[in-house]
């Protein structure tokens, strides 16, 4: 039952963080709650309450709360909950978070609190701990106060890690909860994160003929990735990589993700502000909370070439596959790739036909991909937008540990593989870790961006955004990886009709879970067909004057 003293304290604290007066309900979307920062105070307060209950449910293990709106514009913010092993909040609990954020009166809040305790069978007297961090958005400081108010009212022990990247917080949650285990995930500090990555990186490039000989430039989206990448560089072995940084103006919030960063480069398919690269120079962009990374370059004549999440997935899967084979483990360990509908059709074909690996599709959102990848021996998952990682199962790690190499070549492959399990963030997609992974692979293969691009040719593609009055009217048919709309009923037949007119045409529409818009993705054999196809679908949706057809 509810602890009356605790609940009194909650109500008292809630007075300072009133719910924004919106008619619409808040929802726990692709990456938690995300909206205009001035609407979020109460939402963050209630997330504090849910995180406290979640920790009690998880036997007092630390739960993470990250305050960030990642790729969204600077005036937005968001909040999401991280489970004990560093993974996203268990999906069964998302409705609880939604329910609580939408409680409009003290009675409703009380009912929600009681409901969670009863249905999730939370032992009210259990220990509870929450650790949290935020990105560089100025609104973060106020939202942290709302969070602390909820944690203090619920007598929850907490650690405020200040400003971190999202994946760093995921790392710290797992490190905190494994500290007493046989194999702790890493030291419980930001410093520990850099130490783990740099040690693993040194080991991973140890058997490469030479480190990448050309410099790489990182666009940090004017966000938290900038100071954190600089700290990472301080920890890397001397001379290992020549890294230049651009777009690191975190002191001017309006510059965050503005004409720079992974989302801008991927969606507009052009170079970011401050780009000074010459032909074939290697560049990459992080997003606003440094969980996504994409690479790109320009060819002579300024032709823009993108090496997105699909490219990182195929690069990583091919490399890890080779190592598994060279180490003599290919009979024991299998590799699978997980993608979303946004994956370029050419990448899927390449994985199936050239790499001979199995591809599975899930809905958008790393939480969905992660879940499927975690069931494989080695699961490589990346969204085309550059958000992803590689998961090594306990089974695969054991096989690598036990395997006795039969030759120096086998031993070297095995050592590199083992280093990758530490280099790659096992909790969530992590731009800093993925950056070191890509650099490691390019070093081993002695590849420039040119060879990397040559592996396959992308189908021309376009991603557009349409503003509609009610994006919740757009729902997908379950089991189609969001490639078909169930509602509004008239839209899917029309899309099918339009798509049928283009060679290799593919197009789908889905409601964004992070922005107030629907996304339209299209592919076709020719660039002008792709443009035309997406424009026609957008026109159809827009022809209702922003109203849902
Ligand atoms: C978040 C999610 C990603 C997702 C992206 C766009 O990214 O973590 O998995 O691909 O939003 O989602 P949607 O199309 O539903 O708006 P981030 O980097 O903003 O946290």
What can you tell me about this protein's structure?
This protein has 18 helices and 19 strands. It has helices at 4-14, 41-57, 94-101, 106-119, 139-153, 166-177, 190-205, 225-235, 261-268, 309-326, 345-353, 366-373, 394-402, 408-423, 431-445, 449-453, 491-499, 527-542; strands spanning 33-36, 62-67, 76-82, 129-134, 157-163, 216-219, 243-246, 282-286, 293-298, 304-307, 335-340, 358-362, 378-382, 388-392, 461-466, 475-476, 485-487, 506-511, 518-523. The chain has a five-stranded mixed sheet, with helices on both faces. It is globular, with a radius of gyration of 23 Å. α2 (41-57) crosses α5 (139-153). It has four domains: 4-163, Alpha-D-Glucose-1,6-Bisphosphate, subunit A, domain 3 (Alpha-D-Glucose-1,6-Bisphosphate, Chain A, domain 3); 193-306, 3-Layer(aba) Sandwich (Alpha-D-Glucose-1,6-Bisphosphate, Chain A, domain 3), CATH 3.40.120; 309-453, 3-Layer(aba) Sandwich (Alpha-D-Glucose-1,6-Bisphosphate, Chain A, domain 3), CATH 3.40.120.10; 461-542, TATA-Binding Protein, CATH 3.30.310. Bound molecules: 1,6-di-O-phosphono-alpha-D-glucopyranose. 1,6-di-O-phosphono-alpha-D-glucopyranose binds at residues 30-31, 70-71, 287, 291-292, 364-366, 383, 385, 387, 512-515, 519. Its EC number is 5.4.2.3. Mg(2+) binds at residues 70, 287, 289, 291. Residues 190-294, 308-447 form the Phosphoacetylglucosamine mutase AMG1 domain.
């Amino acid at each position: 039952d509810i602890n009356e003293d605790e609940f009194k304290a909650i109500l008292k604290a809630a007075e300072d963080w009133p719910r924004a007066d919106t008619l619409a309900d808040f929802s726990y979307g692709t990456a938690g709650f995300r909206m205009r920062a001035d609407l979020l105070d109460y939402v963050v307060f209630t997330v504090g309450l849910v995180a406290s209950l979640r920790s009690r449910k998880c036997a007092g293990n630390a739960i993470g709360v990250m305050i960030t709106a990642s790729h969204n514009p600077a005036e937005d913010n968001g909040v999401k909950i991280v489970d004990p092993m560093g993974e996203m909040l268990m999906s069964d609990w998302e409705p609880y978070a939604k329910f609580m954020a939408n409680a409009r009166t003290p009675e409703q809040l009380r009912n929600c609190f009681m409901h969670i305790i009863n249905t999730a069978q939370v032992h009210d007297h259990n220990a509870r701990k929450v650790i949290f961090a935020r990105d560089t958005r100025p609104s973060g400081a106020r939202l942290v106060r709302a969070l602390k108010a909820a944690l203090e009212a619920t007598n929850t022990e907490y650690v405020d890690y200040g400003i971190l990247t999202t994946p760093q917080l995921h790392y710290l949650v797992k490190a905190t909860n494994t500290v007493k285990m046989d194999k702790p995930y890493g030291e419980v500090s930001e410093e520990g994160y850099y130490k783990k990555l740099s040690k693993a990186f040194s080991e991973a490039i140890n058997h490469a003929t030479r480190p990448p000989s050309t410099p790489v430039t990182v666009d940090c989206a004017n966000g938290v990735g900038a100071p954190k990448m600089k700290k990472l560089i301080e920890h890397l072995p001397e001379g290992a990589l020549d890294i230049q940084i651009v777009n690191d103006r975190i002191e001017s919030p309006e510059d965050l993700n503005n004409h720079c960063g992974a989302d801008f480069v991927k969606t507009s398919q052009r170079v970011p502000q401050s780009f000074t690269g010459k032909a074939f120079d290697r560049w990459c962009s992080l997003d606003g909370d440094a969980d996504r990374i994409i690479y790109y370059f320009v060819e002579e004549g300024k032709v823009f070439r993108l090496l997105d999440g699909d490219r990182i997935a195929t690069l990583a899967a091919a490399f890890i596959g080779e190592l598994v084979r060279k180490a003599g483990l290919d009979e024991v360990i299998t590799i699978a790739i997980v993608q979303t509908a946004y994956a370029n059709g050419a990448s899927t074909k390449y994985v199936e036909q050239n790499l001979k690996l199995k591809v599975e599709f899930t809905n958008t959102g790393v939480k969905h991909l992660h879940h499927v990848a975690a069931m494989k021996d080695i699961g490589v998952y990346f969204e085309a937008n550059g958000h992803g990682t590689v998961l090594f199962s306990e089974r695969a790690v054991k096989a690598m540990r036990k395997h006795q190499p039969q030759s120096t070549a086998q031993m070297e492959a095995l050592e590199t593989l083992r280093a990758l399990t530490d280099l790659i963030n096992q909790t969530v997609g992590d731009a800093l870790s993925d950056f070191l992974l890509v650099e490691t692979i390019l070093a081993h293969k002695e590849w420039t961006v040119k060879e990397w691009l040559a592996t396959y040719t992308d189908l021309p593609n376009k991603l557009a955004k349409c503003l509609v009055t009610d994006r919740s009217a757009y729902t997908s048919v379950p089991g189609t990886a969001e490639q078909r709309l169930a509602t509004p009923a008239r839209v899917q037949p029309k899309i099918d009709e339009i798509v049928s007119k283009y060679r290799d045409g593919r197009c789908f529409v889905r409601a964004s879970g992070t922005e107030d818009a629907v996304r339209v993705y299209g592919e076709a054999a020719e660039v002008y067909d792709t443009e035309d196809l997406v424009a026609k679908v957008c026109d159809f949706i827009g022809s209702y004057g922003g109203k849902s057809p």
